[in-house]
Design goal:
With 429 residues, the protein is mostly beta strands. It has a single domain, classed as Neuraminidase (6 Propeller). The protein is 4% helix and 38% strand. It contains three helices and 29 strands. This is Dipeptidylpeptidase IV N-terminal domain-containing protein. InterPro entries: WD40/YVTN_repeat-like_dom_sf.
């Protein structure tokens, strides 16, 4: 790569807040679009407060903004299974007829694999609801199936993306079970099956650091053709300290076959010494670790962009999902910080991402990288207030389906709100 031709420019893009400020609104993660396929409705969670500790009885309204009717907000339900980072996994079922959305709820009639939680499919056109006995994490683009994991386990290992339960289950989940792991949910029948167990994962290219460690799965993404699943396999012996987390980037077929290991960040952990103080770890130290594998996303059906270490250097990397597939650095000189990245759904020339707050100014940056011109457009700077790690508000930028708009969550105006940026000045330049 010839880095001498790479540069950063500031590009102004029109921005507006969705809805009014009476409530706080957020969508959550960067990995799915909140827009309906026709671009009219934008999904959101709505709460009365900007910040709160998660509790099993803390309720959020679920609904959508109508962007063709003064951003009127329509409530379609409510849920107590949500968190500030990912919401309730609210997302559209783009492969189903009409407008159907799915989100997680608390299950008052336990009959699934994970008794505390389930999911609701809401038909916006008819107003009808259909209940699934298990929660969902990511939905396949064809809407035939979803992938899920135990959100109670996530609350123990990675509280920011898990769901709390009425009774404290910390320390009660098995470290590496053989009957649980990455699970597939049939969205028509509701049937759930295990694709690969935690025990199977620990035996696949086993590392000694996996012994006596608790294992979990996160960052599950399905490629556009719905034929391949990526995920992060993580494990640790010190769950209270994220800098002790170890990571592997994995892919697998939807039937559980052809599992591949693309990257392994197993490394020395001085934090495991008895004299280490986990309370000394800063809010964003984990995200800025030189070893972390994070925020993987499919560029297309065969390639994955991820922030992670490869050949002893951490960068934005592009992996070819194939045996002995190539790994290439993306803009080593411009994109130098961990962020939440995704390619434009209409043109992979454009890579959208953000940064974590600057340690002195608390400013986050919003960027679109032009892979053709080796040029990064800085399209916004957003101040973040001093929230706790669990309740922080990352920008989590998401594309509209036509690639002309970007939606973010932000607290730069003292409330938690969603904003839409018109990025045509960048992508149509």
């Amino acid at each position: 790569m010839d880095s001498s031709h790479q540069k950063l420019v500031k590009t102004t893009c029109p921005i507006r807040q969705l809805g009014d400020g009476e409530y706080n609104h957020f969508f959550g993660y960067y990995n799915k679009s909140p827009w309906s396929q026709d671009g009219r409705y934008v999904l959101a969670d709505r709460v009365p407060m900007m910040d709160a500790d998660l509790r099993p009885d803390l309720s959020a309204e679920v609904g959508y903004f109508d962007t063709r009717n003064d951003d009127e907000f329509h409530v379609i339900g409510e849920t107590t299974t949500w968190n500030w980072q990912m919401g309730c996994q609210l997302q559209w079922l783009a492969g189903k007829p009409g407008r159907q959305a799915i989100y997680n709820v608390r299950n008052d009639k336990p009959n699934g694999r994970y008794p505390s939680f389930g999911a609701v499919i809401h038909n916006v056109d008819s107003g009808e609801n259909r209940f699934l006995p298990d929660p969902i994490y990511s939905v396949a683009p064809n809407s035939d199936y979803a992938i899920t994991v135990d959100f109670s386990r996530l609350f123990i290992t990675h509280e920011t993306i898990g769901y709390c339960e009425p009774n404290d289950k910390t320390g009660q989940v098995p470290l590496c079970p053989s009957d649980d792991g990455l699970c597939r949910v049939n969205l028509d029948s509701g049937e759930t099956s295990v694709l690969v167990s935690y025990q199977d994962l620990s035996q696949f290219y086993h590392r000694d650091s996996m012994n006596d460690a608790i294992h979990w799965i996160s960052h599950i993404e399905i490629n556009p053709a719905s034929t391949r699943i990526l995920f992060l396999h993580r494990w640790t012996r010190r769950v209270e300290d994220e800098t002790c987390f170890l990571h592997r980037l994995m892919t697998i077929n939807p039937d559980g076959s052809d599992m591949r290991l693309l990257e392994d960040s197993d490394h020395p952990l001085p934090q495991l010494e008895d004299n280490f103080d986990p309370n000394a770890v800063g809010t964003y130290d984990y995200e800025k670790s030189e070893y972390q594998i994070s925020h993987p996303m499919w560029r297309d059906n065969k390639h994955i962009v991820v922030w992670g270490p490869h050949n002893n250097a951490i960068h934005y990397q592009l992996y070819h999902d194939a045996p002995d597939g190539e790994v290439n650095v993306i803009s080593g000189d411009l994109l130098t910080e961990n962020g939440h990245m995704s390619y434009s759904p209409v043109n992979t020339r454009w890579l959208l991402t953000d940064t974590y707050p600057d340690s002195e100014t608390n400013i986050r940056k919003l960027l679109i990288y032009d892979a053709q011109k080796k040029l990064a457009h800085e399209i916004g700077e957003f101040y973040t207030s001093d929230l706790k790690k669990v309740s922080r508000c990352d920008l989590h930028p998401r594309w509209s389906h036509d690639g002309k708009q970007v939606c973010i969550d932000s607290v730069h105006e003292g409330v938690r709100q969603m904003y839409i940026l018109d990025v045509r000045s960048v992508v149509e330049s």
